Amino acid sequence: MDGRRRSGNVDDRRGLTAGTGGKILGGGIVGVIIIAVVTLLGGGNIGDVLTNVLGSGMESPLTTQASGNYTPDAEDERLEEFASQVLAGTEDVWTREFRRQGWGEYECPKMVLFSGSVNSGCGHATSQTGPFYCSADQTVYIDLDFFKEMSTTIGAGGDFAYAYVIAHEVGHHVQYLLGTLPDAHQKMSRLPEKEANKISVALELQADFYAGVWAHNDNEMFGSLEDGDIENAINAASKIGDDYLQRKAYGREMPDSFNHGRSEQRVRWLKKGLDTGNPLAGNTMDIPYSRL
Question: For the chain, which residues make up each domain, given as ranges?
Answer without folding.
Answer: 10-291
